[in-house]
């Protein structure tokens, strides 16, 4: 039997043109949500919408730069205008820059990560909360953080880890600020996932699988569907008393 946890609800997913964002959008639509997908490039968003519609769902693509307050507000406005509400938001847009020692990271790469990974989540939270707290049913927000941050650190990822640690702390603070207004906020911190971001320089999928088999307790990395399942749990009424948590999904890497 197909779950209908999100029937008649409107969901917004940033960074939904590929990877985790696309998997989350597809999973929400499969459980009945009307999904607004946002990102910087129109073509991959249109592909996500086509996949949803092909399966019988409803979706809308809106291009946006999450570092611009006006852009993310326009996405929220489009969701409400088209579907009548904003019930779920998943702030997934993020980038990794670096791979080498912190002292060698360019200021441009630092600012890019800070702008998208932290300011982008901050601006999205503001726009989403302002809408949700006007609704009798409130809403649920899930931010995508990372095991790199408050959970663990790796050489070559100091700046990225700092931005994702900020997402985790921002999530918890916002959750405390707004739960009495009916807005429930949590985070998911993925470990290595089957996306290009988890490939090391020169690696292909087979190399990554071999490395995961040798180093991860589970013996493999997570699928995007597994991350989506965690997100949907936190966004659903199944997690109605879960507030300000940071759910780690990392194949046991930080156990």
Overview of the structural elements:
This protein is α/β, with parallel strands linked by helices and 255 residues long. The protein has one domain: 3-Layer(aba) Sandwich (Rossmann fold), CATH 3.40.50. 43% of the residues lie in helices and 15% in strands. The protein contains 7 helices and 7 strands; from the N terminus they run βαβαβαβαβαβααβ. The chain has a 7-stranded parallel beta sheet, with helices on both faces. β5, α5 (158-178) and β6 form a beta-alpha-beta unit. The longest helix is centred in the middle third of the chain and has 26 residues, at 107-132. The protein is globular and about 45 Å long. The two termini are 33 Å apart.
Strands in their spatial order, largest beta sheet: 3-2-1-4-5-6-7
Any idea of the CATH topology?
Rossmann fold
Compute the separation of the termini in Å.
Answer: 33 Å
If helices are DSSP runs of H or I spanning 4 or more residues, what is the number of helices?
7
Evaluate the radius of gyration: 17 Å
| CATH superfamily caption | NAD(P)-binding Rossmann-like Domain
Features:
255 residues; alpha/beta; Rossmann fold; seven-stranded parallel β-sheet
């Amino acid at each position: 039997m197909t779950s209908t946890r999100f029937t008649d609800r409107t969901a917004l997913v940033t960074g939904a043109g590929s990877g985790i964002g696309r998997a989350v959008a597809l999973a929400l639509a499969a459980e009945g949500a009307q999904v607004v997908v946002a990102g910087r490039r129109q073509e991959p968003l249109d592909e996500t919408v086509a996949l949803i519609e092909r399966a019988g769902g409803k979706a809308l693509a809106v291009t946006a730069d999450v570092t611009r307050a006006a852009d993310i507000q326009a996405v929220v406005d489009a969701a409400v205008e088209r579907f009548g509400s904003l019930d779920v938001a998943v702030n997934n847009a993020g980038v990794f820059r670096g791979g080498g020692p912190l002292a060698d990271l360019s200021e441009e790469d630092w600012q890019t990560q800070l702008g998208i990974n932290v300011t982008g989540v901050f601006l999205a939270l503001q726009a989403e909360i302002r809408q949700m707290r006007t609704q009798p049913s409130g809403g649920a927000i899930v931010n995508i953080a990372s095991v790199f941050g408050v959970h663990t650190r790796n050489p070559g990822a100091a700046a990225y880890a700092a931005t994702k640690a900020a997402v985790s702390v921002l999530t918890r603070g916002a959750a405390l600020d707004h739960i009495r207004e009916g807005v429930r906020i949590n985070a998911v911190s993925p470990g290595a996932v089957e996306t290009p971001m988890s490939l090391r320089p020169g690696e292909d999928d087979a190399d990554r699988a071999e490395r995961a088999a040798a180093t991860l307790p589970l013996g493999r990395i997570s699928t995007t569907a597994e991350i989506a399942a965690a997100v949907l749990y936190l966004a659903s009424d199944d997690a109605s008393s879960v507030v300000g948590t940071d759910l780690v999904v990392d194949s046991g890497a930080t156990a």
